[in-house]
Amino acid sequence: MTILSEIIAYNKEFVNEKKYEEYATTKFPDKKIVIVTCMDTRLTELLPKAMNLRNGDAKIIKSAGAIVTHPFGSVMRSILISLYELKADEVYIIGHHDCGMSSIDTEQIIGKMVDRGVDRNLFKTLQYSGIDMKDWLHGFSDVTESVKRSVNQVRNHPLMDRKVPVHGLVAHPDTGLLDIIVDGYEAIDEN
């Protein structure tokens, strides 16, 4: 049995037994927050529980390393839609210790792509077209600094409401302990 067939079989049972009813909510976050966090598997259930979040409490955007890399990319678009259309009032950027993005080696990733059949010559074409793979796939060496950069990227976006607090936190992936790196309320008080 494939993973897909296992998922579909379980899904039919889930729907038939109306297990979805305990998760009923609206598209608007009850706690009026939007969270950008890492896609790390350790955080899937741990982070919401560590923050006392239930289904429907928050908009959660997952991205490798919780990095907001482009001011007009999909993560920033999702934040802005959450704020202006879906009634969120605060933004939380939450990185974590022991993140895979802290040990990214672009050359190794390219090697793995080639091993899986991507033509090595394509990388020359991308470079010629202005795509710097090292820049595009970059990670970070310090999660605290990475969170600060993402907070600044969001806070200083030209379409951002300056009255919205943008918080930065770092989670411990084993315990869920959260360290405040940037208190978004303090930044609003300064303006």
Layout of SSEs?
Elements: H1 3-16, E1 33-37, H2 43-50, E2 58-62, H3 74-84, E3 90-96, H4 106-115, H5 121-128, H6 133-136, H7 143-155, E4 166-171, E5 178-182, H8 184-190
Parallel strand pairs: 1-2, 1-3, 3-4
Antiparallel strand pairs: 4-5
Short description:
Its cofactor is Zn(2+). The chain has 191 residues and is of the alpha/beta class. 39% of the residues lie in helices and 15% in strands.
Observed structural traits:
alpha/beta; Beta-carbonic Anhydrase, Chain A; 2 domains; globular; 191 residues; 39% helix; metal-binding; Carbonic_anhydrase_sf; five-stranded mixed sheet
Backbone CA Rg? 19 Å
Structural class estimated from helices and strands: alpha/beta
CATH architecture assignment of the largest domain: 3-Layer(aba) Sandwich
Q: Estimate the strand proportion.
A: 5-15%
Please count the beta strands (DSSP E, at least 2 residues each): 5
Strand order of the largest sheet: 2-1-3-4-5
Average pLDDT confidence is 95
Percent helix, as a range, is: 25-40%
**So, the CATH homologous superfamily of the largest domain?**
Carbonic anhydrase
Distance between the termini: 58 Å
CA-based shape:
globular
Low-confidence stretches: none
Examine the coordinates and then state which fold CATH places here, giving the name of the CATH topology of the largest domain: Beta-carbonic Anhydrase, Chain A
Per DSSP, the total helix count is 8
> How many structural domains are formed by the residues?
2
Q: What is the ordering of alpha helices and beta strands?
A: HEHEHEHHHHEEH
Q: How is the biggest beta sheet arranged?
A: 5 strands, mixed
CATH class of the largest domain: Alpha Beta
